[in-house]
Structures are given as C-alpha cells and as structure tokens.
Amino acid sequence: MNNDILLSARDIEKSFSGVKVLKKVNLEIRRGEVHALIGENGAGKSTLVKILTGAYQKDAGIIRYNDTEVELNSRHDAIKLGISVIYQELSLIPTLTVTQNIFLGREKDTAGILNKKSMRKKVIEIMDYYGLSVDPDAIVETLSIAQRQIVEILKALTFESSLIIMDEPTASLSSKEAESLFNIINNLKQKNVSILYISHRLEEIYRLADRITILRDGKNIAVLEKGQTNPTDVIRFMIGKELADTSGLGRMRRNDKNVVLKVNKLSCKGVFADISFEVHEGEVLGIGGLVGSGRTEVLHSIYGAKKYDSGEILFNGKPLPSSIIKNIRAGIAMIPEDRRNQGLIPLLDITRNIAAPNYDRLSGRNIWVKAKEELAFCKEAILQLDIRPNNPEIQVMNLSGGNQQKVVVGKWLMRNLKLLLVDEPTAGIDIGVKEEIYNIIEDLASKGVAVIVVSSDLKELLRVSHRIIVLRNGRIIKEFNDGFVSQEDVLKAASGITREEAEQFEQ
Ligand SMILES: Nc1ncnc2c1ncn2[C@@H]1O[C@H](COP(=O)(O)OP(=O)(O)OP(=O)(O)O)[C@@H](O)[C@H]1O
Ligand SMILES: [Mg+2]
After folding, report:
1. How confident is the model at residue 414 (pLDDT cuts 50, 70, 90)?
2. Which of 36-40, 115-119, 121-125 shows the lowest mean pLDDT across its residues?
C-alpha cells in the first residue's frame, strides 16, 4: 500500500466509433500534488478527464483511488469519491446566489435540512480555511469569470474533494486573475488537496506543477518531475519536434500603402473613448492592453457587433455600416475570442462549418460542383491548420477543444479577405500549431489583407505585429511604430507600471 498516491489510472483505453483515442494511458497523482497534464490538441487530455469524472466510461484499464479499485459510472460516483472538475464552461446558475449554487440539490443533508444560515456559515468556514474570498450572497451573474471559478472551487470543497481537476482554467482570465488562481492552487495544495491541471501555457505549468504527464496521440510520452526538465524538452516531448526560438523583440515597421481602415474618435460610454487609428493594406496592427482595457469591444464595434456612441469608421474611405452581414460581404472577417460559444455549429461536420461563411465564394450553380469545391476548400483548411482527425465529415462537437478552435479560425482564414479582425488568435491552440497560425496571418498580410490582432500573449503580439497600439482603460495610451519593442515595453504601457512594481504590488 502506498499512502502517498491518491489516484492511479493504469492502461486506460477509450475508442470513439472504432478510433482509439487513449491507448494504455497511465496517470498517477500524489496527495497534495499539482500534477500537470499536457499535450497537443487532440492528444486525449479532456477524454481522460471525462473518464476520471465519470462523464465517459473507459473501455479498459484500472482506476484506483485511495488504494481501492473504483468504477466511475457517473459524475455522481466521482463526486462521492472526492473527484471534482472545474470546466471552462462553468456550470453555475446565473440567477442564484453563491451559496445557493454551492448547495444546489443538497439543501438537505443526512443531519436534516440545512438552513440558509448554516449553509452560509459553511461557505464562510471553507473560504477561511482555504484562503478563498467571494461574497456568499452575491448573485452569480454579477460575478466575473474568475469569481465564478472560485464558486466552482468552493462547491468542490464542500463535497470534500481531495482531487480537483482544472481543464484550461486560465483561458479567460486576466493575468491578475490568473495570479490569484495560482495562489488559490497553492493554498489547496498546502491543505493536501491534489490538483490535476491542464493548460497549453507552459509558463503556468512550470510555475505550478510538481510533476508533468505528457500525452501525444493518446499515448503516454513521459512523466517529468519538477526541476528535472526544461521547456525545450517539454515541447519536444509534446509535439515530437523542436521549435524555432521566437522569443525576443518585435520589429516595428511603418507601411505607407492604402489605408484600408480608418477609425476616427470612436467612443462608447464607459467602455472606450477617443479611439483613432489607421490600418494599411498588408499591415498587421497589434492591439495590446490588459483584459478589460476595451480591446475586444473596439474590435466588435468595427465588425458591427457592438454599437458605439460617436466617431466614425471608414473602410476604404467609405463609412462602414454597422451590419455584420454587409461587412462580411465587403470582405471583413472576425475571429472572436470566445470561439467555443461563437462561430461553430456543433452538429455539423467540419466541411459545413468551414464552408458556411464562404458560400459567396464557392461558385457554380450546380450543386455538385459546389459540394466538390466545398470539400476541396475544407481539405485545404484541414491541411493548413493541421486539424485532427483530418476527416472532413466529423461532427465538430466531437473534436477536441483546440481542434474546434482551429475550425473557427479556418472558416475565416479561407475567405477572400480585405480586413481580418482576430481576438486572441491562438487561445487554446497548442504550441505546435501557433507558428502555423502566425504564418497564415503573415501570408494574408503579404497578399494585401489588413489585419488587426488583439492578444494578451505579449510574445505573440510582438511576433505578429508590424505596429502596436496599447489601450489602457479604454484609451490609446501608446503607439509603437518603429524600431524594436520588448514585452516589457508593452506591459509597461498597458499597466502603467513596470513588472517589478507590479510584483511588489501583488505582495
Ligand atoms: N465524443 C466524442 N466522439 C468522437 N470523438 C471524440 C469525442 N470526444 C473526443 N473525441 C476525439 O478524441 C480525441 C482526443 O480529444 P480530447 O478532447 O481528449 O483532446 P485534448 O487533449 O483535450 O485536446 P485540446 O487541447 O484540443 O482540448 C480527438 O481526436 C477527438 O476528436
Ligand atoms: Mg481538451
């Protein structure tokens, strides 16, 4: 008997319609350990998590928990054992309070009916013990994503979970919110709760994880101990090849070709004010800034998805209508940040999803010609973006999270574009494909497309942008348009303080 091991999964197998996606996978989690699970898009991470939480049933293999063999036939089985999961699509009911959500369906316990007061008290007790903080009486819909995550964690803790699984928890958090999540994770660890942590952000993995399990194509590649490894090795294990080093500085350059988009004194009360900039043919304009600085809202206003109060937007010299449909016809596309909820039709296959906004381009009256073109077009996208599995007929809902993202990216990138708006181009996309996406953006720009990229990933912003404007509190605070720019420069402009100052501030 090994008291140190909380969970051990051995030789786990899982197939979907005859395709094996987990092949004798092993995972072992110690008590009080932060264990990272990493791998490319489609490697099998989420599938393994679903098996551990009773959402899917394994085809073969053995799971032991607290040194006892267990069968996880439902979510309930997992919760009863002490395994909870915090998904990106949070499962709370917006109109109820924090306390009501935490005890939903459990208002009764074995001791009888828990009254409101004792439930509230329990929530506060748990918060104190684990160092969490959120208003127990707040209505959930008034909370930020980060606060809702805390509610989910609290919920898990009231179930006395000994293992909390987090599947890409920082994907929609600002860096400050992510920072407080890391603190929470460390507190949980101190109290001997184990965390299984899934993320594509290697910096986070390095900071948090005691051990890392790496999957590739549904197989175990390695289990690494902290300090035993370096980022280059991890990436090589993950994608099976080396990546070119793309860190360092961004080189800014001006472009004096035609102005494709001119934004003039654009304002939207309480969101952004006095935003003016131009984007030229073949130019990639980066917009930096912290989450909440108004970047996404500016993009949405240009696209026609959000109203603004004053100012004007000119597209090739003419006022841009605030109509998404007209804008799409004019050659404007937007790849939204929230790709899980926007822009996919889960029940349709990859081909239909990619072709959907492109029917104007796919020519021919003859429906058969169209179908053929549609397929060729889709295959091209699958190839370029390395969408896996590479079968155009797979329903999008059966793709892994990251591969779904690629489909959304694909359907817009394959168009005849004049102006492309991209919000967080590689969120949720594995490191091996990031570079592909940067190349596609570069390629579009070299063909004359004007591109605006919003990104919180500073390395990415520097990598793709020809020019960068930085927003702070809804205003343009800085423009970088020549010479070399560092991550530090952008961060400083975005936050108004230096990194050292920010770190001190946090302590
Ligand atoms: N319900 C399903 N039906 C059919 N295939 C599925 C289903 N769920 C997952 N798959 C397939 O299993 C494979 C592994 O997917 P999984 O979601 O586990 O990947 P992942 O490692 O979480 O990737 P990502 O980083 O993109 O989220 C993929 O090829 C996916 O298409
Ligand atoms: Mg996943």
Report:
1. low
2. 115-119
> What is d(CA 193, CA 420) in angstroms, rounded to the nearest whole number?
45
Ligand 2 geometric centre to CA of 410 (Å): 19
Report the atom number in ligand 1 closest to the C-alpha of 19: 5
**CA dist., res. 108 & res. 112, Å (int):** 6
Cα dihedral 132, 133, 138, 141 sign: negative
Mean pLDDT for all residues in the chain? 87
Query: Residue range 398-424: average pLDDT?
Result: 84
Q: Which residues pair with 40 in a beta bridge?
A: none
> Which CATH code fits 5-239?
3.40.50.300
Q: Which candidate, 129, 132, 133, places its Cα nearest to that of 191? A: 129
Given this chain, do its domains 5-239 and 250-331+417-506 carry the same CATH topology? yes
Q: Which helix (H) or strand (E) is 125 found in, with range?
A: helix 116-130
Q: What CATH superfamily is the domain 250-331+417-506?
A: P-loop containing nucleotide triphosphate hydrolases (3.40.50.300)
Q: Of the bound ligands, which one is closest to the alpha carbon of residue 395?
A: 1
pLDDT at 506: 40
401 Cβ below 6 A of ligand 1:
yes
Percent of the chain scoring above 70 in pLDDT: 89
Nearest atom within ligand 1 for CA of residue 402: 26
**Residue boundaries of the structural domains of the chain:** 5-239, 250-331+417-506, 342-415
Residue nearest to atom 28 of ligand 1 (CA): 42
> Among 41, 32, 56, 358, which residue's Cα sits nearest to residue 209?
32
Question: Helix-strand-coil percent breakdown of the chain, rounded to 5?
Answer: 35, 25, 35
Q: 432 CB less than 6 Å from ligand 1?
A: no
Tens of pLDDT, residue by residue over 236-274, are: 888 776 666 555 678 899 899 999 999 999 999 989 999
Residue 39 beta carbon below 6 angstroms from any ligand 1 atom: yes
CB pairs under 8 A, 24+ apart, for 155-158?
155/84, 155/101, 155/102, 156/84, 156/86, 157/126, 157/130, 157/193, 158/102, 158/103, 158/106, 158/122, 158/123, 158/126
CB proximity list for 254: less than 8 A, separation 6 or greater: 466, 467, 481, 482
Q: Would the CB of 389 count as within 6 Å of ligand 1?
A: yes
Give dist(CA 495, CA 499) in Å, integer: 9
